[in-house]
Amino acid sequence: MRNALSALSVVLLLTACASAQATTKPSAGKVEKPPIVTAKEWGSKPQPIDDSHKHTPKRITIHHAGVFWKGTQEPVNTVRGLQAYGQKEKNWPDLPYHFLIAPDGTIFEGRSLAYEPQSNTDYPLQGHVGVELMGNFEEQRVSPQQLKSLVALTAYLCDSLSIAPTEIAGHRDRAEKQTVCPGKDLYRYIEGGQIRGWVEKTLNGDKPDIAPLEALPGGPTDPIPTTITPATKPAGK
User: Which domains does the chain have, with CATH numbers?
Assistant: First the structure.
């Protein structure tokens, strides 16, 4: 009888562990893939990446560009320019991020998910999916469109790659004391749990109410431009 009870206890323990794991890991295939401008569509020109940089995605790291967005050029040109700059100045074979999100919410595909990202900071890059939002969120406020696209993309990545929402963090969390990225206006949504909460609701089949918080005391207060301002105006205008 004692052996039978011990066996039953083991079975119950294993069942409980399996149930607990099921609550922390999403079930793949439930979240619809958001619209993404593929690398081919925007004209990516990657250079070969050594196989030593291949990895298995296990966590998601959120960045900002750290460059003040003036809204004077098309986001696709920013993506192309970042790739060219990295190849020329940093000896990076491709974009350092896997995805980039424009102020109007457009999502661009960056480097292949098969390879680890790259960074100006020092932390282990294996397993990280890099998601960058255009703008400088130390000085600007993240747009509602960017927040919605970030949640949609992150939820899809968690679902399709079996990444737990607890593995979502900011660049400053990964590279401690090295950077303020992704900027205080965006980071508070990570630190306060809003991003994770919205992602979890999406994974559960709900449609979260994704809305910007009030401006931080002391700023930034200026919203990032979501439209493009022509460099020149027609005569007479």
Answer: 56-229 (3.40.80.10)
